[in-house]
Amino acid sequence: MESSPYFKTSAPASADQPLFWGFLALLVWAPMPLGSNRVWSISILTASALALLLGWLWLYARNRVQLTPTSKRAWPIMALLVIANGWLGVQLSPVGFTLSAADTAQEFLQGWGLIALFVLALVLLSSQQRIRWTIYVVVASGVFQAIYGSLMTLSGTEFTFLIPKDAYKGVATGTFINRNHLAGYLVICLSLGIGMMIASLKSTPSGTWRNRLRRWMTALLGAKARLRIALVIMVIGLVLTHSRMGNSSFFIAMMFTGVVALILGRKASRSTIILLASLLVIDIFIVGTFFGVEKVVDRLENTSSHRETRDEVDQYSISLLNNHLLDGSGAGTFYTSFPEYRGHDIRIFYDHAHNDYIEFLSERGVIGMIPLLLVILATYIAAFWAQWKRRNPLMRGLSFGCIMSMTAMALHATVDFNLQIPANAATFMLVLALGWISLFHKKEKGDT
């Protein structure tokens, strides 16, 4: 493998190295089996995450691994996540209330798996080399999903994960069932990839023409060129999903985070401005011309309250929410509780609210929602603070990717349920961990 700032293999292997590779494999596996949105696939994801964490704890008990500086500083976030998931245990208890104990129990177990992934990211991403590997593995997974979804659509071979598609034909879904969930996943991968592009930009002047030529050749032939190609491929896949909010949230979040980076960077970087401008120009005008961004625009223009029923679902869900505002109806019970409140004009079966905020609040109540909101808010602040405080290019790139991912997911959550899909929720837990890593990671001796 070539020697580059992206991949270095000189560091000695540590005791938790096999766990790290297992963690990366789990990140790639999560979206494969229909976004892990089946009982058997979420069981595999949850059991694997808990097994990896138990393996790390066993090594820690034998003094073969240590806590990272980030894991020591982010313990309040871990505590909030435990409190949030512990509330589901209360809903299952005799003193609690849930409309479906089986569904709430599944959410309860899944929650521990997601917490395990968050903790694993904090303790396993102990070096810059591992951080880079993680980001590039996630980007590679996004590239696979984009290529697979695009080929299935463009060739007319409509398959998801080893089974023929029975919905969303003619649009890219990857190995997910719903195009919006592929879009949500690709936006996370794109955000982290763009963050890595930001981290690779040179902040010093080129100087002589010879140095400029060397940098241009490196950009054309090196790892940055491969990463840029990966970003273009993922944008093609995102456009081919024809997801309105998926595409909108991506471009809005990218522009917003770009402005934030330029402001908090204290000095506008010409290379950053050029990169963001090229992303907009190339991805919108060139990629869109050949792969149908106008169809996304048409869907946005043709959207109306008369043709969409999601807004009515939100309105009827408010009644459900008001009746279970404090304690919730039970995690995972929306499809059980909603039929009682929906009007006769809703003739489609809705198993989710198409609004993550409403669904989380109606199922978990204010008590279960507050810890989750605190986690999101604190991580958002940490990523902003890292963008202002850190001067390490990789840490600034991580904070950029975290801010962009969280902004896009916050927008998409108003009209969809990405965080109800285990694969997207698992990848989002990585994003949350990266936000804290970007603020507290310290370069140690031998770190690359």
From TrEMBL:
It is found in: Membrane. It comes from Neptunomonas phycophila. Residues 229-371 form the O-antigen ligase-related domain. One of its GO terms (cellular component) is membrane. Keywords: Ligase, Membrane, Transmembrane, Transmembrane helix. One of its GO terms (molecular function) is ligase activity. InterPro entries: O-antigen_ligase-rel_domated (IPR007016), WaaL-like (IPR051533). The chain crosses the membrane at residues 40-61, 73-97, 109-126, 133-151, 182-204, 225-242, 248-265, 272-293, 366-386, 398-415, 421-440. It is a multi-pass membrane protein. It holds the Pfam family Wzy_C. It comes from the Bacteria. This is O-antigen ligase family protein.
